[in-house]
Amino acid sequence: MLDRIRILAQVVESGSFSRAARALNLAPSSVTRTIDALEQQLGVPLFKRSTRQLVLTEQGEYFLARSLPLLEEADQLVQSLQPLSGAPRGGLRVSVFESFGAAWLAPRLPTFLARYPEVRLEIELDNRLVDLDAENVDVAVRIGRPTDSSLHARRLLANRTLLVASPDYLAAHGEPAHPDELISHNCLIRGQGRQRQHWYFEREGEKRRVAVQGNLASIGGTPLLCAAKAGSGLLLLSSWMVQQGLDDGSLLPVLPEWQASPYEDRHDEIYAVFRGGRFLKPQTRAFIDFLIEVMKPLQGPR
């Protein structure tokens, strides 16, 4: 049945029996016999015979639409039976939101490619919400769980935010002992500088909402991170962007006993979003496992 469906799909894609035969390296008569046999098996006509064009019947359109996902799942099932240690190979298309991809994931991709040298990785750094099916994307790394019920998701990371500053800034301006003291500090703002900004803090049930201001604002986090390392001000940013600075000493934690956030009641999480469910291509499965592995150092307080 599946082989017959593959030929049906090729006939529809090619637009004729003869072109489908060439694409499949089969004789045209073999393609015709296969379609006839499939129609007999189903008990319904799949093509309208009274027109010169190759047009599916209503039953044919319905059958093909419901069959294509079965073909894809069957292919993924066969691929998933390959042991992961058997070197995944082939193309892998990944979409990652820009700041995370550039600042954190890109430096780690050579490790993945060295581990799986037969994988051809195509990565796109883009903040738009890609359509995985329409753009043939295998994995998308996104902030927030997808609303599309046809997609699957693996939670990678709680997108914690940390308040940091450089040693030089703290030496020159002092280290705040309480969130309320931020009003007298230069705060590097994520977002539009014309909008009034607040940072939110919580500690053992105590909550504080602090209006902050500063001389630099940016929608992207990279300019703010550079400024913070240069001693320009206090910065509230995702842990995966500031962790390297904390590790090498160019940044220090500020008010570490407080949970800090730019949002009052929202805690974003990072997910790997993909198609295929249980039956993933080996290279897709390998990449998701790699993401989970390399993100472990960011999972909790260091």
- Let me know the largest β-sheet: 5 strands, mixed
What integer is the average pLDDT? 86
CATH homology-level superfamily of the largest domain: Periplasmic binding protein-like II
Inertia-based shape: elongated
What structural class results from the helix and strand content? alpha/beta
Sequence stretches where pLDDT stays below 50 over 5 or more residues: none
Q: Count up the domains.
A: 3
Number of beta-strand segments:
13
CATH topology of the largest domain: D-Maltodextrin-Binding Protein, domain 2
What integer value in Å does the Rg equal?
27 Å
Q: How far is the N terminus from the C terminus?
A: 55 Å
* Text of the CATH class of the largest domain: Alpha Beta
> How much of the residues is beta strand, in percent?
15-25%
Question: From the 3D coordinates, which CATH architecture of the largest domain would you assign?
Answer: 3-Layer(aba) Sandwich
Please characterize this protein's 3D structure.
With 302 residues, the protein is of the alpha/beta class. It folds into 3 domains: 79 residues, Winged helix-like DNA-binding domain superfamily/Winged helix DNA-binding domain (Arc Repressor Mutant, subunit A, Orthogonal Bundle), CATH 1.10.10.10; 106 residues, D-Maltodextrin-Binding Protein, domain 2 (3-Layer(aba) Sandwich); 101 residues, D-Maltodextrin-Binding Protein, domain 2. It is 37% helix and 22% strand. The protein has 10 helices and 13 strands. It has a 5-stranded mixed sheet with strand order 2-1-3-13-4, with helices on one face. The protein has a 5-stranded mixed sheet with strand order 9-6-10-5-11. Strand 7 and strand 8 form a beta hairpin. Helix 1 packs across helix 4 and helix 2 packs across helix 3. The longest helix is centred in the N-terminal third of the chain and has 23 residues. The chain starts with a helix and ends in a 7-residue tail after the last helix.
